[in-house]
Amino acid sequence: MGIKIAGTGSYAPELVVENNDFTAFVDTSDEWIRTRTGMVQRHISSGEPTWYMGAKAAQEAMNHAGIAANQVGLIVAATITGDYYAPSLSCMIQRELGAIGCIAIDVNCACAGFVYAFDLARRYLETDPELTYAVVVSSENLTKLTDYTDRSTCVLFGDGAAACVVTRSQGLYTCFLGADGNGAKSLFTRSIPPANAFMPDPPKAYDDGFPAGNGHYIYQDGREVYKFAIKALPLAVNGAAEKIGFDVRSLDLIIPHQANIRIIETAAERLGVSQERFYLNLEKYGNTSSASIPLALDEAVKNGSIQTGDKICLVGFGAGLTYGAVIFEY
Ligand code: UT7
User: Is residue 32 lining ligand 1, measured as CB closer than 6 Å?
Assistant: First the structure.
């Protein structure tokens, strides 16, 4: 069974920060950021919570699909920057949409989150006959986890949300998802450590092998993650295509996670697919983790870069380390 996108939507905070704006507090330059990443600006929260952005994006996708809240049977939300440990982001978005009663699930697969969420929605649609429409939404507030004294990470991240409404189709579908926990320490943000009234002082130490320090801020070993990304992207796209004997050169559009233009250039070469087939908008949004793929998807739908019947690939890679690709017919 395939999956069809019935509508898309997005939300980007109004505040736009340009490369040069960082030079006021870290030793960087517009030239370094452009040439090393392809980024030019990013949208940054002025206080918008993750649930607010996600609900705005999801509502727009529902309006585009022409469906009402009571027709939504499932919400899958991808995020690593929810506003609460509990309730989940999907429950917060459900409340805003008024889609009370539907199934609500969060997935935490970092920058591959939207791809995992999309595939999860398809599996629910396949096995639950009572389900007709699912909302797949990613919303991220990465800047709340960004250390603005660290030039190697602070220039990279932006905030935003995007969503799509999906339903069953008879079109082609394939996926390839995976993870490599051995790379967990290359890209992480810490939660609060164990603490309770009965804890020994000092508490028992458990070594996770992660670099020390950095509080709750994003730590990234850029070079390690880069090496992983240029392998994971072609691995996932080829892996998905091979399952159904599909030639990746027949893809009309590949929408990758928007982390670095150089990753896309290398991956395009390794896949043997022209770079023009890759949809990129990282110059406008920077890296928004799980929101980056649907932000590009929504833009491509709105500007006519995607037409009915097109064969589309979404491919993500990120903390975990996680990776995944889906191929479907629009
Ligand atoms: O979204 C999840 C997945 N994440 C990714 O896919 C990210 C993968 N990694 C990357 O995209 C790249 O590694 C980065 C964009 C993060 C960094 O680019 P790079 O070409 O790998 O740079 P680097 O870390 O090797 O640093 C090169 C130099 C260093 O200086 P030295 O040691 O050569 O003197 C850095 O200190 O660039 C320096 N540098 C900067 N210079 C100016 C690092 N950040 C900056 C900066 N401005 N913002």
Answer: yes
Pick the CATH number of 174-329 from 3.30.70.260, 3.20.20.70, 3.30.1330.40, 3.40.47.10: 3.40.47.10
Residue nearest to atom 48 of ligand 1 (CA): 151
Q: Is 151 in the pocket of ligand 1 (CB under 6 A)?
A: yes
Q: What pLDDT score was predicted for residue 103?
A: 98
Class assignment of domain 2-170?
Answer: alpha beta
CA-based radius of gyration for the chain: 19
Ligand 1 pocket, residue 288 CB under 6 Å: no
Residue 203's contacts (CB-CB under 8 Å, 6 or more residues apart) are 193, 194, 195
Q: What was the pLDDT predicted at 213?
A: 79
pLDDT tens, position by position, 161-194: 999 999 999 999 999 999 999 999 999 999 999 9
* Domain chopping of the chain, boundaries: 2-170, 174-329
pLDDT at 323: 98
Which residue positions in the chain have pLDDT lower than 50? none
pLDDT of the residue at 28: 98
